[in-house]
Design goal:
The chain is an all-alpha fold. It is 75% helix and 1% strand. The structure holds farnesyl diphosphate and magnesium ion.
């Protein structure tokens, strides 16, 4: 996510950090069994944007003092958050019965649900083993809390499938839990490990959480509107699995009569084309997009002063890219 950024010294620091993360990731997952290594190699190709480790590194660089380098704990936490993320994706693809991720086949599609569930378990277990290598129980506690929250978000989402009364507040609470808390913790821990004060750490967590919420709204819009070749993963899963997302919720809340009924019928019959027509006509897709942009603007306004200006500019740029992406 840093390719277009013009500051070459900062870009080199980030690239070096991400290379260390990759090395850690691979060494942590290396097993005596080739069958396990093959599966890990398969999920390693899911690492695309590397948003979460990038945020740990950039937040760390933003708050380290001049002349100071990132700590080895930054690398460990950056690799850990990515491994937690990978575990959740492998399990998520089982729940969503998705066949494609990052332009390749999902583990469940390729090897079945049993292998995918076990591989997700292997990844989450390794994530916490890796985190323990930092030797700071506070890091394990925080990421344990985050992973609990993430599972709660997913469980609440499951319990509200096919529920047409799902409201905006509950949608945002699900999204905050299932996606935003991990992005928030990436910013928070990168900042904390750089020795920043408590108010900067809290502000960075809020920045990351806002990015996470906007990221998930955009993800949901791509699931509804994108085409598989561009997005690179199975789409239409939300409708298929009865997950109401923001444009659907806004439409149901803000329309009446035939207009409202048309969308409800399309959701019930899983008719994606009819649903898109109804949501476009009512302006609900534009309204959901506007909400994501508003949240990004809120994130940018709340970004605290950093010790290094260039890293701050990059954080602002990363925030914009969350809603500008089409994959
Ligand atoms: C993406 O949703 C899913 C998440 C952000 C979280 C999924 C979490 C779990 C399944 C819990 C697993 C827990 C552990 C401990 C391994 P999405 O389906 O909207 O995104 P997608 O479009 O990328 O599939
Ligand atoms: Mg999914």
């Amino acid at each position: 996510m840093t390719r277009a950024f013009p500051d070459t010294a900062l870009a080199a620091d980030i690239a070096a950090g991400l290379a260390r993360v990759e090395t850690l990731f691979e060494s942590q997952l290396s097993s005596d069994f080739p069958a396990v290594n093959d599966l890990c190699r398969h999920v390693e190709r899911y690492r695309g944007k590397m948003l979460r480790p990038t945020l740990v590194i950039v937040a760390g660089l933003a708050f380290t003092r001049d002349g100071e380098a990132l700590r080895s704990e930054h690398d460990i936490i950056a690799a850990t958050v990515e491994m937690i993320h990978m575990a959740t994706l492998v399990h998520d693809d089982v729940l969503d019965e998705a066949e494609m991720r990052r332009r390749g086949e999902t583990v469940n599609f390729l090897r079945g649900n049993e292998t995918a569930v076990m591989l997700g378990d292997y990844l989450i277990s390794n994530a916490f083993h890796l985190c323990s290598r930092a030797g700071d129980p506070a890091l394990n506690l925080r990421l344990g809390e985050v992973t609990n929250t993430l599972c709660e978000g997913e469980l609440v989402q499951l319990s509200r499938r096919h529920d047409m009364s799902l409201d905006e507040n509950t949608y945002f609470e699900i999204v905050r839990r299932k996606t935003a808390v991990l992005v928030g913790a990436s910013c928070e821990l990168g900042t904390r490990l750089a020795g920043a004060d408590a108010s900067a750490v809290a502000a960075m967590r809020k920045f990351g959480e806002n990015l996470g919420v906007a990221f998930q709204i955009q993800d949901d819009l791509l699931d509804l509107l994108g085409d598989e070749a561009t997005v690179g993963k199975s789409i239409g899963r939300d409708l298929e699995k009865g997950k109401l997302t923001l444009p659907m919720i806004l439409h149901v809340a803000n329309t009446t009569g035939a207009e409202r009924q048309a969308a409800l019928r399309a959701i019930e019959s899983k008719d994606g084309a009819a649903l898109r027509r109804a949501l476009e006509r009512s302006g609900s897709i534009d309204a959901a997009r506007a909400k994501a942009v508003e949240i990004v603007e809120d994130a940018k306004r709340g970004l605290p002063a950093t010790r290094r200006a260039h890293s701050r500019e990059l954080l602002l740029e990363l925030a914009d890219r969350v809603v500008a992406r089409d994959s």
